[in-house]
Structure formats: C-alpha cells, structure tokens
Design a protein that fits this description.
The protein is α+β, with helices and mostly antiparallel strands. Helices cover 25% and strands 33% of the residues. The protein is built from 14 helices and 33 strands. The N and C termini lie far apart (61 Å). Bound molecules: guanosine-5'-diphosphate and magnesium ion.
Length: 610
C-alpha cells in the first residue's frame, strides 16, 4: 500500500544546541503513537548511539516515519553543534520543510541563525516554534519579538509548545500538515533517489538512507549509483521506525532506507544518486545535485598505542567512515609513534567523538597528536619538495607540523581564517572583545538582536579557535554566549614551528605550529607540564622547547631512584601489591623516546592549552 504523494510531509527539526530538538521529536513520536510509551524507555529516543545518550547531544541525523491524520510524516532530527552542521545540511536537502525551534528561556542563538539560513537556501517552508514554555524563566513575549524582528518571521506563525509536557504538540503536527508542502511529483520515467546518509551495519552491509525524487524503489531491482558508477541489486527497502521497517516499496517523495549488499566503504557515498534505468552510459543517467564535499579544517594524527593494532585501526577507519563521511584520513608515520593515520576533522568535538567511537566500537587504544589546521606556504626553493603537495595556484599545503619544510625554504605562511558569529548579552561585550583580541581576531560587524543582546561578527585565525576558544568564550560569559564559525579565507601570518625536545630527542608528535608571539609562553607551559608527567629516571632529563635551533625554554627533571613501595612501612601487603600492579598497568601506556618513556596522557595533557 503506498501513500498518495500529496499526503507526504518531509521535514527536519533545526535549532541551536539544547533548545529541545530531540525532546520535541520524542513528543511527536509519542503523540502520533509511532512508539508506545512503554517502548520509550529513555529520553531523546532518536539519539540512538550510546555516546549520544551519555553526552546528551545529537551527533548524527536520525529519520523516523510517523502517521498523523491520514498523512505520512517523515521527520529527520538533526544535531545542533557547529561541528556537525554537515549532518544538518544533508538533512535539509532531503526534506521540504523545517521546524525551527527556539528556546523561550534563551532566545535566538548562533546556530538558530546558521541553521535557518541553510534551510532558506534550500527554500524550505519554516515553522517557527517557541519551546520550553512550561519553564518559569520562559519569556515568550521577548523571544517572539526577537523572532519577528531578527528572523523576519511573522509572530502569528509562531507555535508555542512544551516538548517536555507535550503541550500544544498536536497543533504543531497540524501545522506541519498544513504549511509544509507535499513533495513535488515528477514526470521523469526513471527512478532516482538521493543518498543523504549511508551507514555500515555489521549484519546487512551498507545501508543507504534515501529520499526518492522520481519513481519507485523495490527489492530485487537492479539499480546504479551514478557517481560511484556501480551497479547492485536492491536487497530490501523500508522506512525508519526508527529501526529498519521493511516495506514493499519506496515511492516518489518518500524517505527510507535501501539495503545494498555492498560491502566496501567507497561504493555508496552520501550525495550519490541511486538510479534505475538503462545502463550507466545512457543519456538519461543524470545525477541529482548531491552535496558539496565537506572540507575538514582540524588535522591531527592518530596512532595505535600498541603497534600491533595498526591493522585493526586500518579496518576500523574503513568501517567508521561509512557512518561518518566527514572524516578523511591518509597513512602517516612518526619516528616516535610508529604507523598511524593523519586525519581531518570538522572540529575538536568531532575529533573527540571519532577517537571515542574508534576506541569503544573497535577496542582500540589511540594516541592523537595536537590538532592543527592546514597552512598554505609559498616556497623560495622546490628542492627536495614533495610536488604532489603543490596546489594548482602554486601553494605548498601542509596539515601537520611535521610536514613543515625548513624555515629557509619558506617565503610566506598563510593561515586559514574563520568568520565567527557570536551572540552575547550586552554586559559581556567587553570581555568578548578582549578575548577575541587576544586570539588575533578582527571585528567585522556588530548589531543588536534587542536591547539586551548583540550579534558580533569577527574574522579570527582558525588556529586560535580550534583548541579552546569556545570553552573560554563560555567561561567569560557565564555560559551565555553562543557562537558559530565557518572558514573564509587564508591570510599571511607570522607562524613558527615549536619543537619539544626531551633528553635531546625531538618528540615529533608534540610539535605544534603557533603564532610567534605565543611560542615562548606555550613552550614554557608544555615543558612544565611534561616535567610533571614524565617519570623521573636514574639520570637528569632536559625538557626543552625550541624554534629552529633556538631554545626558548628549559626544564630539568632531576634524577631519582624510583621505588614506589619505599614509603609503605611493611605491613599492608595487599596495598603494596595493588600499587605495583598499578605501576605495571601504567607502564603499558608508556611510549619510549630514546632513553625516556613518556606516558600516553602526556600527549593529551600537552594538547590542552591554558
Ligand atoms: P537538542 O540539543 O536541541 O536536541 O535538545 P534536547 O532535546 O536534548 O534538550 C535539551 C535539554 O532541554 C534536555 O535536558 C531536555 O530535557 C530539556 N528540554 C527540552 N524541551 C523542554 C521543554 O519543553 N521544557 C523543559 N522544561 N525542558 C525541556
Ligand atoms: Mg538533539
């Protein structure tokens, strides 16, 4: 039984992080009886990954189909964090409307604006929703005014709800049916569907999430992937409940999944078109617009703690990128850490999540080097230079400090800048400006959302943003500021490679690229931290920071005979054993550098700047 196309509504929920997208999705699921109350064992049902539940954030888009008053509703819940805006943009391209949620206790925040702009680019119908009206701190009057004045949305269109109590959620469903347009019908004879997500299921292989644009998809059909130029037989089609619910077919306008039988990573990529028609060579085989490929701008190298795990890491990454097309990687090796991969991430949270998922889902222990951004260099000599790194416009591109050529070969170093939008209560504007200045940022604009809150835009070097800018912003504004950023361009910067040298051995994985004005201070901090972390040896250990041949700071760890049990006076044998055992476990997580062993934690501790 297939649904008449004019009864289908495809929409997503967009909002700033924590404004209640996933909770609202829960209520929609409940009110439509898609899941029974007893099946909703926890909050945020659509946050299906363990890591999402534990952290209370949505990382991946998640579709679900619901029924409401004779309509078929296909909802996609999306993440709010800026690192995962790629998930939002993919969801937006697969739907016809969006519920824009604004927290009535907060108002418009940075991601409210960016996600709305994305939705407007795709001409989505927008349903503005004021959420959390059950809270005493809710100020629907002020926030409605903001929505009207800043977003240009008529106040009469706003629907006020509580995603917690379910108040007014039924009217929201009615509004979805009324205001979001049905999918467009098409007169194209061949079947075409857009892949907006693609995951690897250990039992079923590659499962693609699709929006059918023309025609129907059924099990048994032979279909083609137009970009990958692959052909496969569809094993199963169905919709999301939110699990996989097998159905007879997916028809025009519907959102659902296709089990492909494909086994490898590169075959069914996000943005590709599933096409059923004559062979791949035929005239009609035209791919749908797809997506711009995401450009990672945080880079770090990843190494298995145990060298033997390298093949495990290789397999893990191959599987992992099927459910996270934003991650890029290529093999890398380090004299200190052995074989691993140089990875490109969308931001620090993305990096953290990738590491945690790889460790947890594939049983790996990983070391990640300090994150950096890509730099473009102009060189005065190409002697001994890897020509493949030279771009068409003549730049030499590096993404990790180890790749930096010797200083005498470099004319100029260009660093990436981001356009940063910050929404902040007026009383904190001064603090924010001071922070941005410290981070070498330049203010480009300022306007007021209302008397009490400002929207300020800056250009800030990406290098200064990636490590802890967001944390600092939150802490100087008591949590009230929100921000969004996106890359804009490259500009020349006075940057240097800061090396860390332990017992005369440079530790390549601790090198960083920093602005010259920060080199000395950062070198000192890193050396101090290392001094606390590196266990003493039977000889003194010099810990130095240097730029080129110039030493900037030095710490000396004095020699000590290490005997952890010495301070226990006989007696408590079991405690002694415990301590020894702990010390042994500690040993396993050490890496040997020349004569000195550095604990794994050192890399993580050093990475967090003050
Ligand atoms: P998301 O990041 O937009 O998906 O936000 P969540 O749905 O995860 O909600 C963030 C927090 O706000 C959670 O602690 C929710 O319980 C809470 N929350 C969401 N909607 C409401 C609401 O209508 N009223 C109240 N009081 N709390 C809500
Ligand atoms: Mg969420």
């Amino acid at each position: 039984m297939s649904m008449s196309i004019d009864k289908i509504r495809n929409f997503c929920i967009i909002a700033h992080i924590d404004h209640g997208k996933s909770t609202l999705a829960d209520r929609l699921i409940e009110v439509t009886n898609t899941l029974q109350k007893r099946e909703m064992k926890r909050g945020q049902m659509l946050d299906t990954m363990d890591i999402e539940q534990e952290r209370g954030i949505t990382i991946k888009l998640q579709p679900i189909r619901m029924a409401w008053k004779g309509h078929q509703l296909n909802l996609i819940d999306t993440p709010g964090h800026v690192d995962f805006s790629y998930e939002v943009s993919r969801s937006i391209a697969a739907v016809d409307g969006a519920i824009l949620v604004v927290d009535a206790t907060q108002g418009i925040e940075a991601q409210t604006l960016t996600t709305l702009y994305m939705a407007m680019e795709y001409d989505l119908a927008i349903i503005p929703v004021l959420n959390k009206i059950d809270l005493p701190a809710a100020d629907p009057e002020r926030v409605s005014k903001e929505i009207e004045e800043v977003l240009g949305i008529d106040r009469s269109e706003i629907i006020s709800v509580s995603a917690k109590t379910g108040e007014n959620v039924e009217s929201l469903l009615d509004a979805v049916c009324e205001h979001i347009p049905a999918p467009k019908t098409s007169d194209i004879a061949e079947t075409r569907a857009l892949i907006f997500d693609s995951v690897f299921d250990p039992y079923r292989g590659v499962v693609t999430y699709v929006r059918v644009v023309d025609g129907n998809l059924k099990a048994g059909q032979k279909v083609h992937l137009l970009n990958a130029k692959r052909t496969f037989d569809i094993l199963e089609v169905g919709y999301f409940s939110p699990g996989y619910e097998k159905s007879g077919q997916l028809s025009t306008g519907e959102i659902g999944y296709v089990i492909t039988g494909l086994k490898t990573t590169s075959e069914a990529r996000v943005g590709d078109t599933v096409w059923q028609g004559a062979g791949l060579e035929s005239e009609e085989a035209k791919a749908l617009p797809g997506y711009a490929k995401v450009k990672p701008f945080v880079f770090a190298s990843m190494f298995p703690l145990e060298a033997d795990d390298y093949p495990v890491l290789r397999d893990a990454l191959e599987k992992y990128i099927l459910s996270d097309s934003a991650l890029v990687y290529e093999p890398a090796s380090s004299s200190a850490l052995g074989n691993g991969y140089r990875c490109g991430f969308l931001g620090l949270l993305h990096m953290e999540i990738v590491q945690e998922r790889l460790e947890r889902e594939f049983g790996l222990d990983l070391i990640i080097t300090s994150p950096s951004v890509p730099f473009k260099l102009t060189l005065n000599s190409q002697k001994g230079i890897d020509q493949s790194r030279i771009t068409d416009d003549g730049f030499y591109v590096i993404s990790t400090p180890e790749e930096m050529p010797p200083r005498e070969f470099i004319d100029l170093i260009y660093e990436p800048y981001a356009k940063v939008e910050i929404v902040v209560p007026s009383e904190y504007i001064g603090q924010v400006m001071e922070l941005v200045q410290r981070k070498r940022g330049i203010q480009t604009n300022m306007s007021y959302l209302n008397e009490a809150r400002a929207l300020i835009t800056y250009d800030i070097p990406m290098l200064e943003i990636i490590v802890d800018f967001y944390d600092q912003l939150k802490s100087i504004t008591s949590g009230y500021a929100s921000m969004n950023y996106e890359p804009v361009d490259y500009r020349p910067g006075d940057l240097v490679k800061l090396d860390i040298v332990v017992a005369d051995e440079p530790v390549d994985s601790l090198s960083t690229i920093v602005h010259r004005q920060f080199a000395e201070a950062q070198g000192r901090v890193v050396c101090k931290k290392l001094k606390e972390i590196i266990p003493r040896a039977q000889f003194p250990i010099a810990i130095q920071s240097a730029v080129g041949a110039k030493v900037l700071s030095r710490e000396t760890l004095s020699a000590l005979r290490k005997d952890v049990t010495a301070k226990l006076y006989g007696g408590d044998v079991s405690r002694k054993m415990k301590l020894l055992k702990k010390q042994k476990e500690g040993k396993k997580r050490m890496k040997q550098f020349g004569k000195v062993s550095i604990p794994q934690d050192a890399f993580l501790t050093v990475l967090k700047r003050e």
